[in-house]
Amino acid sequence: MPAPHWPAPTATTPVTATVPLPGSKSVTNRALLLAALADGPGVVRQALRSRDADLMVAALRALGTTLTPMRETSAGVDWQVTPGPIRGGAHIDVGLAGTVMRFVPPVAALADGPVSFDGDPHARKRPMGPILDALRALGARIDNDALPFTISGPLAGGEVTLDASGSSQFVSGLLLAAARFEKGITIRHVGPPVPSLPHIEMTIEMLRAVGVRVDAGERDVWRVEPGPIAARDMTVEPDLSNAAPFLAAALVTGGTVTIPAWPLHTTQAGDALRDLLTTMGATVTRAPADSTASGTTTAGSGTPAAGSDATAAGSHPTAARSGTTDLVVTGTGHITGIDADLRDVGELTPTIAALAALASTPSRIRGVPHLRGHETDRLAALATEINRLGGDAEETDDGLIIRPRPLHGGTFHSYDDHRMATAGAVIGLAVPGVEVENIATTAKTLPEFVQMWTAMLEAR
Ligand SMILES: O=C(O)C1=C[C@@H](OP(=O)(O)O)[C@@H](O)[C@H](O)C1
Ligand SMILES: C=C(OP(=O)(O)O)C(=O)O
Questions:
Q1: In this model, does residue 34 exceed pLDDT 70?
Q2: By three-state DSSP, how is residue 114 classified?
Q3: Per the annotation, where are the binding residues for phosphoenolpyruvate?
Q4: Would the pLDDT of 374 be above 60?
Q5: Contact by Cβ (8 Å): 76, 32
Q6: ipTM of this complex > 0.95?
Q7: Which strands, in side-by-side order, build the sheet including 400-403?
Q8: Active site residue 159
Q9: Sorting pLDDT into bands at 50, 70 and 90, what band is 74?
């Protein structure tokens, strides 16, 4: 029996809340995988606990890694990770997680036997061809061009050309495991532009932090030298993309939302929110990390900011280098439309589109045709759901045009997409009677979403 739809709360007053966020999905799943491939036991601190992270943990365990939780708080889980020989014979469930379906197969190709992969029904539709062809070119045998498939090594590594315009994760997946390939790897991208380049930067930065030599000096070419991956003590930053709906609430309600422990230097896509939300009419400031806006209370977990102690003293390179501040976003209740190329930060599109649907001037979102291969076809889903509520959204070849039009209540379908569900919540702040279908899908990256959202609205 499907769960009843979630009545998205409407904000009757401006929100004033501090919202600590759990760890980044993208950093967590890279850190766990690198720790599993390392030359000794390591630690991943303040890792996200969510469906995607749990799927990564299960995948690495199935391949022979020992992962032991040392401490779990609402800021995340500290994992002791002890690598083992990579075992064949495993079956990996990727769920709907791009980071599992693209990052784990290159590791599986190093196993001593075949490894099979499958996932949610929609996972079978997400693009996999370029990374599977690349693994074949590097020596692996694979029996299909999409999920489900079985992969067998050995994988020698070497040079490969692929079209990564469908997902940056094809490049990241190959790079993450490549130091363990006998010949390392040289990847050449040929095709339309690669999306989500900051996520490839994240991969490179995290590889370098564990001693892997990466050459990214030439556009669309990446080289990883074979060699050991150092065991480290890594700390995960808060998930800045999951900050998006909460910060959007400041714009929609004319309130103030503070996110603690926002890194001063980061490769996370969510950092682009500072500029995007400014363009849409917000005031964005940084406050010292130990300050709390007066009169605010903490929404969500009520624990110290995720990443705060880690970023003061921690070992994650991005956090350790430059520390963190609070990020404070204040809105006016009046949203200006935006014309933005989101190719680098496509995962922010559902929140930006939700804001655009509430804006007083038209918006155009460009550069994101690859969103058709995300958790759902996000361009079609956003246009359909905004229009279902009476809005005016139109798909283009590479994005969306959204024009102002008054919205009314109704069902907002999530398509099993966590960011569609949170986009429905953002619209619901301003539009009475919005009901989000399958809000539970937020568990992909933020299992506490409903509690955090409710606490944000109740905070004063
Ligand atoms: O490497 C990563 O952690 C991610 C890369 C991006 O994928 P695409 O390049 O497929 O957009 C992003 O959208 C996704 O949420 C996470
Ligand atoms: C595209 C996303 O996820 P995935 O890692 O499954 O690709 C996302 O989180 O917006």
A1: yes
A2: coil
A3: 25, 98, 126, 169, 378, 419, 444
A4: yes
A5: no
A6: yes
A7: 339-341, 363-366, 400-403, 392-395
A8: no
A9: confident
Best mutation site among 196, 201, 371 for ligand 1, i.e. most ligand atoms within 8 A of its Cβ?
196
Burial of 47 (0-12, 13-18, 19+ CB in 10 A): buried
Cα-to-centroid distance, 58 and ligand 2 (Å): 18
Residues with Cβ within 8 Å of residue 329, at least 6 apart in sequence: 247, 250, 251, 256, 257, 258, 259, 273, 277, 282, 283, 284
> SS in 3 state form for 265-280?
CCCCHHHHHHHHHHHC
Is residue 170 a contact partner of residue 98, using CB atoms and an 8 Å limit? no
Q: Which of 27, 34, 126, 167 has the most ligand 1 atoms within 8 A of CB, as the residue to mutate?
A: 167
Length of the chain: 460
Q: Report how far residue 206's alpha carbon sits from residue 110's, in angstroms, rounded to the nearest whole number.
A: 21
Q: Which domains does the chain have, with CATH numbers?
A: 6-23+237-458 (3.65.10.10), 25-224 (3.65.10.10)
Kind of pairing, strands 16-18 and 256-263? parallel
Residue 247, CB half-sphere, CA atoms under 13 Å: how many?
33
3-class SS of residue 411: strand
**CA gyration radius for the chain?**
21
The pLDDT value given to residue 277: 98
E runs forming strands in 107-208: 115-118, 141-142, 149-152, 158-162, 185-189
Tell me the pTM: 0.94
φ/ψ of residue 70, rounded to 5: -95, -35
Strands (E), 226-349: 233-235, 256-263, 283-288, 324-330, 339-341
Pocket (CB within 6 angstroms of ligand 2):
97-99, 347, 374-375, 419, 445
Question: What's the CA gap between 340 and 282, in Å, rounded?
Answer: 16
